[in-house]
What we know:
- The chain is of the alpha+beta class.
- Among the domains are: 300 residues, Methylamine Dehydrogenase, Chain H; 231 residues, YVTN repeat-like/Quinoprotein amine dehydrogenase (Methylamine Dehydrogenase, Chain H), CATH 2.130.10.10; 125 residues, no CATH class.
- Helices cover 21% and strands 35% of the residues.
- The strands form 16 sheets. A four-stranded antiparallel sheet has the order 1-28-27-26, with no helix packed on it.
- Strand 10 and strand 11 form a beta hairpin.
- Helix 8 packs antiparallel against helix 9 and helix 10 runs parallel beside helix 12.
- It is found in: Cytoplasmic vesicle, COPI-coated vesicle membrane; Golgi apparatus membrane.
- This is Coatomer subunit beta'.
- Pfam families: B-prop_COPA_B_2nd (PF04053), TPR_COPA_B (PF23953), WD40 (PF00400).
- It comes from Sesamum latifolium.
Amino acid sequence: xxxxxxxxxxxxxxxxxxxxxxxxxxxxxxxxxxxxxxxxxxxxxxxxxxxxxxxxxxxxxxxxxxxxxxxxxxxxxxxxxxxxxxxxxxxxxxxxxxxxxxxxxxxxxxxxxxxxxxxxxxxxxxxxxxxxxxxxxxxxxxxxxxxxxxxxxxxxxxxxxxxxxxxxxxxxxxxxxxxxxxxxxxxxxxxxxxxxxxxxxxxxxxxxxxxxxxxxxxxxxxxxxxxxxxxxxxxxxxxxxxxxxxxxxxxxxxxxxxxxxxxxxxxxxxxxxxxxxxxxxxxxxxxxxxxxxxxxxxxxxxxxxxxxxxxxxxxxxxxxxxxxxxxxxxxxxxxxxxxxxxxxxxxxxxxxxxxxxxxxxxxxxxxxxxxxxxxxxxxxxxxxxxxxxxxxxxxxxxxxxxxxxxxxxxxxxxxxxxxxxxxxxxxxxxxxxxxxxxxxxxxxxxxxxxxxxxxxxxxxxxxxxxxxxxxxxxxxxxxxxxxxxxxxxxxxxxxxxxxxxxxxxxxxxxxxxxxxxxxxxxxxxxxxxxxxxxxxxxxxxxxxxxxxxxxxxxxxxxxxxxxxxxxxxxxxxxxxxxxxxxxxxxxxxxxxxxxxxxxxxxxxxxxxxxxxxxxxxxxxxxxxxxxxxxxxxxxxxxxxxxxxxxxxxxxxxxxxxxxxxxxxxxxxxxxxxxxxxxxxxxxxxxxxxxxxxxxxxxxxxxxxxxxxxxxxxxxxxxxxxxxxxxxxxxxxxxxxxxxxxxxxxxxxxxxxxxxxxxxxxxxxxxxxxxxxxxxxxxxxxxxxxxxxxxxxxxxxxxxxxxxxxxxxxxxxxxxxxxxxxxxxxxxxxxxxxxxxxxxxxxxxxxxxxxxxxxxxxxxxxxxxxxxxxxxxxxxxxxxxxxxxxxxxxxxxxxxxxxxxxxxxxxxxxxxxxxxxxxxxxxxxxxxxxxxxxxxxxxxx
Length: 940
């Protein structure tokens, strides 16, 4: 039967002719050497070119990674070898290696050696630790030496292929190479025409190598008996590349006929032929531990992935694991790790591997039956059932797929149209021919058959249709109880409840079942938008790893991430007595991660609404897992319960804030002494109307802005005074300015602006609120501006020197003098209504109106603004001409020098208007009522 390997193309890049390819052992890189003299490194994950080296104008026929040195070594037709650092792109070494074209370079897997072969019929050994000195020359071929390769099972040996139709095997020592005379172990006259390529068999004990020739054939040789084992025929042109795949039982050959052929390594039958239409094949690249194969063509590079990289392994309920490495079957027992051995989560378990036997077919799946007594191996279109302990064959047959039922029965899919069901005694019970193409089958409580876009469930006893569900199924996982099932699709998975009683009642009643099955057979419980790679059930908890390799579990539709895996791992099972879930990686390393059964049980009880039993289980959960429990409860809306369970102070603080429990939050904040916590608590207290608590919290948090809001809302002049000093100490000048401004301490505001080197703002403030200070500030401004722009400094006008440039300047001075005495008098906030109209009043405008009224009374209603300018012209500070007024402000406004209260005389009469200031609104040239007159309804 065929291997039925799944082949997926992972990379396709067009380029000039590719002469060699190589895979990096750790990075997702492909190295391709081109006939045009260029080296390219492709990233097969991002499908992009990572680096490119312009080596020479002649063909580069071979290039290899030296990953442990971060190098690339290349040999070209200009007879030079070049070494590059692929990280820095620096050229490490260039030297002439041969006297003709260099055909191949090979890197020793562990030692600092590189072999090169050439059209000069020589093979040379280079040692990079000796400055790339040539330490040995191997002669013997009578034509071009096309390829050399080290034996992976004996790295003291290498093989060479030549157009003289022979292959030679050479064993050489690593000590005293200079005095050693090379002599080939053996020479094989391999083909009727020139030999282009050679490769060693990697796995098992077979001493095989394979060769490809211009006679259109590939041959498998036993290099111990020097006999030809098999001749692979089928190519219609020269065979240019061959390889034994290191992970799969296949041989791959590439030819100038444009095809790549895949052969079974045991039966030598042709399994598959690939043709990507890129003309001739020149090179094959592979790597141990990977199922990726790179192909170099005339017109580009192709990478394919053969089969799945999931390790073939199974674990029973007692912790015994059986896995398959090629045809070899091995077993380990998790319980062999003693209880006194402490293993941390994610640590590789030190398990003793025991050889269990071999398998007659190449395993593609391996699975224990429910009670662990038997193990089935399926592959090559066949299945074999073995006993788990002695590995004895109990039954076998044809099968593309094999599944177990929960009772120990099993079913096989022989084709897309034929499924057979067998009893526990290995006897055939029933044969089914579905009316659709059955692409996959799944076992469990029900037998499931799925097509490309739907799945049908059947009972095991009578094969009656239970339910059809329209979904694209990638895998199916049944819970041990048989009541829950997870259906995994390409991008999400669904958890369904199987209503066994409903189905039994329907079938027992004798009612007919249509093509959709029993309507109420399943209830959809949850849909999770995550891709499942592998999964298992533990009770009502579904454990899985997703596409991002996170290990998650799902209880009641709530997904919790247990661990972030650092590499691809696959679930094996769960051991309840150890409370650990076990996984395996591609290298068959087994790791365990803790997942408490009591934690799962608690969450399950909460989801079922059984809070009484859940509270009984809670004490058995270790304290370190209580935060996880609390987050689960919070997600279910049980925030108060979460607060009781949580142990992390930060998390408890968040929950307390969420619930509005200020006392609990305050206790946590006092212990933590975190400004952010005090600030959160202060904001919550303020919103709750607990202003004294809010004040204390905001002080602890040093939240000066919050205190400003609080004090201004309260009309607390004393608090704002204290806050102003505190803000100055902390360098919070904006807060300090606002505090002083609201207090009416305009001189202090001005000084703060000066101290902060904000002199222009100080000048404008003085012009608006303290006209008497303008000259002083302008002098400072000029001095500061002189350092930058002398002309700009000279253009600044001082109102004492140029009063004509400042409208109503004397009025502003008079109003300032009159209003200065009222700034420190704060009216109660409760009287705001009586003074509300003054908050928008302009004192200068009021003064002008008073003046106009007086003039109207004295002059018989003349319009104050009706005067004509007298045409006098004065010069400004920058030399500009300024037109004067017929009557100056000095004539209209006079400050009584003899008056002790600074009364303002308008045309000789004292103004009766009450002048007060409001520093809150910074409108130019006027003064408004004080701070507390516009505060809130709170009075301190």
